[in-house]
Amino acid sequence: MEYSPILHSLHVVPSSHVKNKLFVFFIMLSLWVYMIYCCVGYCSTMPNLAYGSVNRHENDAEVDNHQESSLGASRDLLNNENDVDSRGEEWDEIRGEAKALDDNAMSGFLNESESKKLPQAIIIGVKKGGTRALLEFLRLHPDIRAVGAEPHFFDRNYDKGLEWYRELMPKSSEGQLTMEKTPSYYVTKEVPARIYTMSKDTKLIVVVRDPVTRAISDYTQTRSKKPEIPSFENLTFKNMSAGLIDTTWSAVQIGMYAKHLERWLQFFPMEQLLFVSGERLISDPAGEMARVQDFLRLRRVVTEKHFHFNPAKGFPCLKRPEGNSKPHCLGKTKGRTHPNIDPEVVQRLRDFYKPFNSKFYQMTGHDFGWD
């Protein structure tokens, strides 16, 4: 048969064309798989938005309505399931701060040695003490990986198991510390035993604040969402004329720090707990952060160069130590103006808390100067 260049070209060209298509297809498939891998690695370091949307109403409530504390049933007129900082507001903060401040969110997302670990340290309290500020300050540290949303595992989701809890954590590499914060842990009676069961070596951080100011801040937060609630004065007393404080109201109950601490000391030695002053976290954030980093046995990376005091908001904002970037402040839900409270009610509350404060100072070995 006579050789025909035309027939030969007709046979070869389709074969070459198919091979080229297959080659391009495999290249694109590889790139697609690579991009999915990268996204999964990065997203694991960010707050779990799906979890947040399901539990939007549970963000900061301190005492579960369906539980009783060791101090008696909590009258949660202000702290029911709807009485929380809006998770939608907090997600804006968390997403923005994670992008602007956590330079390590992407570092090592291709590192196959990274994995999700149960937390070695937990911020366990207290509500309206400054826990969000402390968490965001800590997230500046390259050796800390912290979940942004509050898991509420040990007080509300314990039946879901430790593997469910582990999956909420960000990926971390060897040498990095995994953390979370849920302020209601400190006042929930079942929590100390549950954390001890997970790990008896867990480091625990409690951010405390003048209990009177804390209670007013708690009330202020709720009133911003429920303007129709009774006055602070009416809620404070069982009987106003008799001056009898209502200790079943969680806003009052949370500030009885010594009572709650007794329960924790049944499981953990005092050296595993660090008590951070909410007031000093505002007036001297670098000083308090030095204490926290020492407690966690971390390098003192977060220092005064990371803070800029904002007089309008009344608390420090975060900034990058290098460059001239604008300081990044916590969101609009922080730093609300407190209502004017009857001075006599404030004084009666101070008198009520005084013995609790004195005992707390003695137990912790630190005078917080609230009296």
Q: Quote the distance from N terminus to C terminus.
A: 110 Å
Largest sheet: 5 strands, parallel
CATH class of the domain at 115-211 and 253-336: Alpha Beta
Name the overall outline: elongated
CATH topology of the domain at 115-211 and 253-336: Rossmann fold
Computed CA radius of gyration, to the nearest angstrom: 26 Å
Quick one: CATH superfamily of the domain at 115-211 and 253-336? P-loop containing nucleotide triphosphate hydrolases
Could you explain the architecture of this structure?
- This protein is of the alpha/beta class and 371 residues long.
- It has a domain at 115-211 and 253-336: P-loop containing nucleotide triphosphate hydrolases (Rossmann fold).
- 42% of the residues lie in helices and 12% in strands.
- It has helices at residues 5-43, 49-54, 87-101, 131-138, 153-156, 162-168, 191-198, 211-223, 232-236, 250-253, 257-264, 278-283, 285-295, 343-364; strands spanning 68-69, 72-73, 115-116, 121-125, 144-146, 171-172, 177-181, 203-208, 237-239, 244-245, 273-277, 307-310, 315-318.
- The strands form five sheets. It has a five-stranded parallel β-sheet with strand order 5-7-4-8-11. The protein has a two-stranded antiparallel ribbon with strand order 1-2. A two-stranded antiparallel sheet has the order 3-6.
- A hairpin with a 4-residue loop joins strand 12 (307-310) and strand 13 (315-318).
- Helix 11 (257-264) packs parallel to helix 14 (343-364).
- The longest helix has 39 residues, at 5-43.
- Mean pLDDT is 78; it is low at 1-14, 40-70 and 76-110.
